[in-house]
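Continuing the series of single-chain predictions for the mutant panel. This is the parent chain; the variants come on the following pages.
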Amino acid sequence: MQEELGKYIADLLYQHDRLNIPGLGSFELTHAPALVDQVQGQVSAPTKAVRFNENLVLDDGILIDYLQQQNGWTLSTTQEWLRTRVEGIKKSLAQKEIVEIPGVGRFFRNFEQQLQFVAESENFNIESFGLQPVRGQLVQRSRVEKIPASKPQASAPSTPVVKPAPAAGVRADQVAGGIAKWFQGNLTWLLGLSLAIIALAIYLMFLRPGPTVSDPVAEVPQERLNASPSKSTPPAQEDVAENDNTTTEKLPSAPSEEETNDLDTEAPTMAAEEHTAVIAVGLFGNPDNVQKLMQRLSEDGYAPVSRKEGGNSRIGVSVRFTTEAELQQVLQEVRKDYAENAFLLSRDGKSLR
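Parent structure:
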């Protein structure tokens, strides 16, 4: 059942560095440089290995389009065929079976029920595809210093005897001996200086009193005393567009999942010329990844929102804008900083999908 799916996935991995499988995850290629095996004396060509990311489950449309082109199917028939294969993989994994996709790799769940993927030794690098390892011999260079042999001098009664100059080793021993003698003569002074430095360091680190800083006291108006906090939305931060005099407003606070059961129904009060939109960032199955992305979006000044889609959570950002240029600028920023496949999910409360 998975032979056909594996063939389609392997064909696309030769053309793309990332391929999303809707509802399952995404396959990503990583570059590995040429490998030199010094033990066997072989050099292998550069490769591209495949790995699996179960958090990216959005449909990028690449696999659906390829299936339609290869088989001449309609969109609904293609989606149903792919959904049946993905459900079969999930069912087999739930039964603790090993699912093999020929030409790509194998899926299984470990003892902690975490999805694991083991890739096959297929090289998806087209530039080095088919190149076999070549044998090579490691070249080792050694440097041998040749010491010329000393020639004996003929002795003659009339030739005066010349004493050879002291060797370098003798001079080094004399210098080392002089340093050791100096330390012995000044040992008491050096010991006192060391103790003084240690005492000064202890004083500066632990005993010196620090500056007294009074706690700031905020002035609160009388009418706000004993009053409950306001539920109004805090002022939004504005980013000035580079090629426009208008500004795009990013909502800084994120509602909880109970308050955002539908990303397209709730919108803040705004002026007549303003509009709202929701930009979809990602679809995640792991709650920890959902929480991390929501916190990151909020810290970056966006207004993160989420909703349930089946067993996953759709994460997006709510944006208010006045012109189409402002909306497109925010969309490009989200694609650059978070996800290349981010898209408009709704506009003025109306779903675009």
